[in-house]
Amino acid sequence: MKKFRLTFLKPSALFFATAILFQCCMVYDKQPVTIDDAINIDHKKVKRIKIDMTGNKKIIFDSIYYRDNQLFGLKLKPKEKTNNAAAGDQNATGDKISKKGIEIQINEDDIIQIRLHNKSKTLTLNIFIAVIGGLAIFIGGHLVAFAFPAD
Fold first, then answer.
1. What's the pTM value of the predicted model, to 2 decimals?
2. Rounded distance, CA 140 to CA 144, Å?
3. Distance CA 53, CA 106 (A)
4. From edge to edge, which strands make up the β-sheet containing 70-76?
5. Do the Cβ atoms of 88 and 149 come closer than 8 Å?
6. Which residues contact 112 (CB under 8 A, 6 or more apart)?
7. Angstrom distances, CA of residue 107 to CA of 104, 115, 118
8. Looking at residues 96-116, what average pLDDT do you find?
9. Do the strands 63-67 and 96-97 form a parallel or antiparallel pair, or are they unpaired?
10. Between vectors from CA 83 to CA 77 and to CA 85, what angle results, nearest 5°?
11. What does the domain layout of the chain look like in residue ranges?
């Protein structure tokens, strides 16, 4: 009779679980900021801007700015999805596509709060979750190996 062994399963399960858990979440500061603070942020420290709007709508932008006294948010475009779109075109919702990404006009009256992405808390939380997940898989693997010993 062939012996059942889990030796190959433990490292691969740990690797895939850790890879998935490292991509799990984004943490935003609890303290909201003003529009002017969000426009003048240091993009090396803050990666994204989350705007909570009326109607329970949340939009995440890479940057926001004023142009012609109108507030715009910029979402960087994925290269593979917008290669066929020329600068100045509009997408299905009427948002303008620029060379950098998709520009979405924001109505300032609809803004409830603006929160900035916190890179250090995101990294810390993702590492913590990955370590806890890795330990759970490690302990679970040993419990399974203990329950089904390969004599």
1. 0.65
2. 6
3. 10
4. 63-67, 70-76, 101-106, 96-97
5. no
6. 52, 53, 54
7. 10, 17, 25
8. 84
9. unpaired
10. 85
11. 1-27+119-151, 28-117
Alpha-carbon torsion 66, 68, 72, 74, what sign? Answer: negative
Instruction: Summarize the confidence of residues 111-120 as an average pLDDT.
Output: 89
| SS3 category, 120 | helix
pLDDT in tens, 88-105: 555 545 566 666 778 889
Burial 58-73 (b: 16+ CB within 10 A, else e): eeebbbbeeeeeebbb
Q: Which fold has domain 28-117?
A: SH3 type barrels. (2.30.30)
- Asked whether 77 and 97 are in contact (CB, 8 A), the reply is yes
Whether residue 6 contacts residue 151, with contact meaning beta carbons closer than 8 Å, is answered with no
User: What's the CA gap between 150 and 141, in Å, rounded?
Assistant: 13
